[in-house]
Each structure stands twice: as structure tokens, then as C-alpha cells.
Amino acid sequence: MQSIKAGTSRKALIYLLLMLLVLFFLFDLFLGSTSIPFSEIVKTIVTGQSPHPEWKIIIFDFRLPKALAAILAGIALSVSGLQMQTIFRNPLAGPDVLGISSGASLGVAILVLGMSGFFSSNISSILGNWAIVVAACIGSAASLLLVLAVSSKVRDIMTILIMGIMIGAAISSVVSILQYFGNESLLKSFVVWTMGSLGHISKMQLLVLFPCVLSGLVLSFLSVKRLNALLLGERYAMTLGLNIKFSRVLIFTSTSILAGSTTAFCGPVAFIGIAVPHLCRFIFKTSDHKILLFASMITGAIVLLFCDMVSQLPGSDITIPVNSVTALMGIPVVVWIIIQNQKKNLW
Amino acid sequence: MLKAIDLEIGYNVPEHHKNRVGQKLNFEACDGELVALIGPNGIGKSTLLKTIARLLPKLSGTLFINGVNQDEIENSNYAELLSFVSTDIIRVPNFSVYQLVALGRFPYTNWIGSLTKSDKEVIDLALNLVGLSSLQSKPINEISDGERQRAMIARALAQNTPIIVLDEPTAYLDITNKYDIVHLLGELTLKQNKTIVFSTHDLNIAFSEADKIWMMGHGYALQGAPEDLVLDNAFESLFGSRLQFEWQSGTFKKSKQIYYSVSLSGNRNSLFELTVNALSRIGFMVNENSGTKITIAEKDKHNLFILENQNSVKEFKDIYGLCSFLKREKA
User: Fold this and answer.
1) What's the half-sphere exposure (Cβ side, CA atoms, 13 Å) at B237?
2) What is the DSSP letter of B13?
3) Residue B302 burial (C-beta neighbours within 10 Å; 0-12, 13-18, 19+)
4) Residues of B in contact with A285 (CB under 8 A)
5) H or E segment at A223?
6) Of A291, A289, A141, A174, nearest in space to A225 by CA
7) CA distance B72 to B89
8) Residue A157: what pLDDT?
9) Which of A82, A336, A323 has its CA nearest to residue A217?
10) Parallel/antiparallel/unpaired status of strands B220-224 and B212-217
11) Quick check: A239 and B107 CB within 8 A?
């Protein structure tokens, strides 16, 4: 009986979140330096036409790509955080904590600052976009593999976490060195990139980001059962017949693609990956990945849309980097997790 | 059915140096048997169980699972033959008992792990057998250690394997829960005809509940009914002569050094036996010829212990007063 009841309320929650997502999506389109009436926005999107050509440009070339980027990035970061928390059996694991985002930064830094000769200073060609994604994914996969190599030697989770932070710091300093030698105009574009921005994403880049996030999600869906078994720890999972090596490859590939591709275009957006899965566990009161994966996707998109709206400082012409908004909103959640775990002696 | 022939276990330490735990082990457990694995700390009980569960590779020898060589069984099929309960404590938040037990169905469910009607029946049966049906929706962090151990056993049952291996299932449990858990395992061997092997440090539980004991000692290993091993003096040789088997109660007791003697008189009732017990604990043996005399009497419906020797007579209200005085004075 109880499980049926829980099932219905979970479904209701999912619908509620989906509605919230649509609402936030429209609100995000509504906000900006040019004020466009809400009804006009809906009309323009539905019909593809607008009485004011400049509104059409603003909506289709700026606001829509940005809102879609927020949704894609929110989904990708939350799912990668969820997967990492389970595989590392650590509530504080996330793409930005274990050096995955820094790894992606290094990949991009090497590409942008180091090999700029191969690409024009303005990396807008589709080849350039793919190159950035590949560089970021390779970078994040490399740092993930490094953390994984450490975690196979060391069982203690705190040690792994500290090693992850160290790896992240080491990578960041390599990035600084690259910055030091980089040429000035490239440097500026790189620095802007590191601040994390959803606004600079182009339609072409979205066309690259979308299949990346989609393929990462497909891999996550294929890993749901494995992730549930990994809740028991690797030892139990093995006695259940789980192929640990293959599962790791699957989950890490998915995590690298999700975190890497997002970081490639939006810069390192912090704390979404840690905070959203916890928010979902708290709201849905479950640890079943079948539910958590869906919930994290929707909640992640909602949270990043919300952060994007806040970053535009509604009512003003100023836009602050979205990264600082996600940090300010995510840090209290992380502090709350630490206190909760201390209290309940979890994980 | 589980059979080890000349099995060598241990950790493979890098560089042609193998850290062998013991010697060649020959053990067997038949269908419907509850086997207790005993041995001193560090002898390799966990290593043996992990080797059987295939979490560690064996160094040499053969291990037969239901008559088939372990090497010839695929990992995915192995999970349908043998389930394992380790000492790891699962502390995942928002993880219900039902969800934990349902994970036992892992080898049988589809790619996303959805439970069919028959899966749910197996889970319900497992929860029923361990007596946790009423707690199935509770998070595992909010149940007691004994209940959590039951949940872990239910998970192994849901895996529906003919063999279950448990590493110290009674660790962290109080005495009632210890007996309950081992009793439950015994019931499962009877009702479900399972082969169950568990390691324990509790000789009394092993002796009273297990059909067979696998004993690992330094340089030797034995197996047999608990009584067979008692007749062979195996327990004494394993734990030294300080551990003695008491024939009447069928329990093991660490024998105490005797330093002094006293004589004890009074009605031969339970109070008398308890007093003897208390005296032996502090190193006094009851001897009729001793100069020191204790008389158990009754005064105003209260017990009274009268202690006499050459010089003095003292009275005590309870055993505690008597013993603490004797311990101080050393008679």
C-alpha cells in the first residue's frame, strides 16, 4: 500500500517539476535588457513570426539558445554529479569537486591557448566547436581516470576526495601557466570562458552540445541498474554478478561526456552537480536511480534556469557570471549536506 | 554443495611473493547444512569466505560449487549460485529495506532492473522469512543493527542461491540477536535446504547451532560435527588449555586460575551455585577443609553471608559485599 501511495505522490511531484520547468523556461526568455511582452514571446516561439524583427532576433538568436543551454547544462551537470556520488559512494562528489571540470578546463586551455595556431582566434567554426568538446571531454576523462587510479589503490573515501581536490588544484596551476604564456586576446576569451556563461553559446554550439548531452544520458539510462547495485558498494555489487570494470567504463564515459561537453561551452559551472542530486534525494526520499535520474534531470534544468534568471539581475542591465550565482546557491546546500551527514553518520 | 580441495588462499602481493594465509584447506558443506567457520583472529576466515565468494582469487587448489569447478562458472551465473553477506555496513540515505532486499534480484531482472510479479513474490517471501515485512518501507539507517543484519540476509535470500556465505553475521549484535540470527540461518537450511557457511568468534553459538564446524588453526584445519571436534580436543588445541568445555551445559568457558580456597555451607539451591560461581570468578575454590568458612543463612527474610576464620566473623548482605571483601583481604 505504502509503495503505491509513494509512487503516486512521486508521479505528482514529477509533473509539478515539469510544470515548473516550462514556467521557468518562459520566464528565462522573458528576462533581458530589452523588454518584450510575455504574450509576444510565447507567440513568437509558437509561430516563429513576430511583428518586430529585432524581437525575433533577440529571442531566437540570444534568449532561446541561452535558455536551452541552461536546460542542457543543468541536466548534464546534475546527472554527472549523481553518477559520481554513487560510484565514489561520497555525498560530496561532483564534477567540480573531483577535478573533472578542471580537467575539462585544461583540455580547453591547451586547445585555445596552446594550439591556437590551428584555429582562428575566433573559434566559431563547427570544427572548432567539436574540437573544444573533444578537448574538454578528453580533459575531464583524463582527470577522472587519475582520480579512479587513486581510488583503486586507496579505499578511504576522504583520501580520494582530497586527492581529487589536489588533482584539481594541480590542473588549475597548469592552466595558469598556460594562461601566463597565452596571447592577450585569446587569454581574455579563455578567462571569460572560465567564468562560466550560458549567454555566449551560439546556435551552432548548441547543435554540438545537444547530441553530446543526449549520448551521455543514453549511457546513464543504461547504467541505472548498475548504479543501484553500486549503492551497496563494489564488493556487494560484484557478488550480485555486476561486471565492475565494464560498469566503471560505462559510467565514467557518460560522466566525462556530460561534464566535459557542458564545461566546453558554458565554462566550469560549479555546485550544480553536487547540490541537485541531494535536493532530489531530499524531495523524493529515495535512492533509486530510476527515479533520481529523472528527478535530477528536471531539477537540474530548473535550478540552472533559475540561476540564469538571477544572474541577469532582473530590473537592471547588468549580468553577473552564472558561476557565481550557482556557487552562492549551491554552497549552503553543500554545508547542509555536511551537517546532516555528521548528524546521521551517513555514508 | 560446497567443496574445497587442497585450496590455498591469500592475498597476491606484487613481486613473486605470495602472502599465503594458511595451508591447503579441505572443507566440505552439503545441501541443507549450517556450517560455522571458526578460528582465531587473523587466521584467514574472511579471506577464505571472500575466496569462496570470488571476491579474491584462490592461489591454488579447486573449489567446487554445486559440483562444478569455480573456474568454469561465469561471473553472472555465479551470482545465481552463491550470495554473500559481508561485514560492510551500508549507510546510504533514503534507502529502504525493500529496495535493499530487491537488489538481491539483480541477476534476474532486465536492463533497467524492473521487478516482475515473481520477483516481488520472492522479495516478499525473503522479507517474511527474516521477519521484516512490517519494516520494509523503513530506511535502513533507521533500523537497529540486528534488523539491518536481517535485511542483509533477506537480500541474500532474494538472490535465491543454493549457497549463502556470511562473514561474521553476528558481529555488533547483542546476545539475543546473535542467537536469533544464527537460529534463523539454521531454519533456512531446514526450510529451504540451503547450504549456509558463516564465520563467527562465538564458540557457544557455533557449538549449539551449527551442523558442522570448519576450524582453521595455525598450520592445520579440521572439519566435523561440533561434538566430534570436542572429542578430538580440537577446541583446546586451537585456543589453548585455558578454554574448557563444560560437559553439562555444552558450553565453553575460559578456565580461571585458582589461588585460594574457602568452605561453603548452606542449602544447595541456586543461590549456592551463584555464590560458587562468584567465588570462582575471583579465584576462590570451594573446599570443605579450608579454614575460612562461609555460611549462607537467612535473616529477616534476607540473605546473609557469614564469613568466619580464626580471628573474626563478618556478615554480608549480598554476594557483591562478600566478594569485594574477599578480594581485598585475599583471605
Assistant:
1) 14
2) E
3) exposed
4) 94
5) helix A203-230
6) A289
7) 31
8) 59
9) A82
10) antiparallel
11) no
Q: Closest approach of chain B CAs to the CA of A113, in angstroms?
A: 42
Cα-only R_g, chain B: 26
* Range among A87-101, A149-163, B66-80, B244-258 rated most confident: B66-80
One-letter amino acid of B48: L
- Residues on chain A touching B84 (C-beta within 8 angstroms): 236, 239
Instruction: Spell out the residues 6+ positions from residue A214 whose beta carbon is closer than 8 angstroms to its own.
Output: none
Q: Do B88 and A233 touch (CB under 8 A)?
A: yes
B192, B185 contact by CB (below 8 A): no
> What is the ipTM for the molecules in this complex?
0.83
| DSSP SS3 for A183 | coil
B93:A233 CB<8 A = no
Q: Which residue has the cell 583471605?
A: B331
Contact by Cβ (8 Å): B163, B82:
yes
Instruction: Give residue-wise pLDDT tens across range B245-268.
Output: 766 666 777 777 777 888 898 887
Residue B252's Cβ-side half-sphere holds a number of Cα atoms within 13 Å equal to 23
B89/chain A closest Cα distance in angstroms:
9
Per DSSP, the three-state class of A328 is helix
Cα maximum dimension of chain A? 66
The CA distance from A337 to B283, in Å, is 54
Whose cell is 564446524? That residue is: B213
Parallel, antiparallel, or unpaired for β B260-265 and B293-299? parallel
Task: Extract long-range pairs of B323-328: CB within 8 Å, 24+ residues apart.
Answer: B323/B278, B323/B279, B323/B281, B323/B282, B326/B262, B326/B279, B326/B282, B326/B284, B327/B282
- DSSP symbol at B56: S
Please report residues of A whose CB lies closer than 8 A to that of B82: 239
Best to test chain A binding among B112, B133, B152, B164 (most A CBs inside 10 Å): B112
- pLDDT of B117 > 90? The answer is yes
pLDDT of residue A78: 96
Residues 6+ apart with CB under 8 A from A187: A113, A179
Helix (H, G, I), strand (E, B) or coil at B4: strand
Instruction: Name every chain A residue with its beta carbon within 8 A of the beta carbon of B99.
Output: 228, 286-288
Among A64, A239, A103, smallest CA distance to B78 is for: A239
CA angle A33–A37–A40, rounded 5-degree value: 120
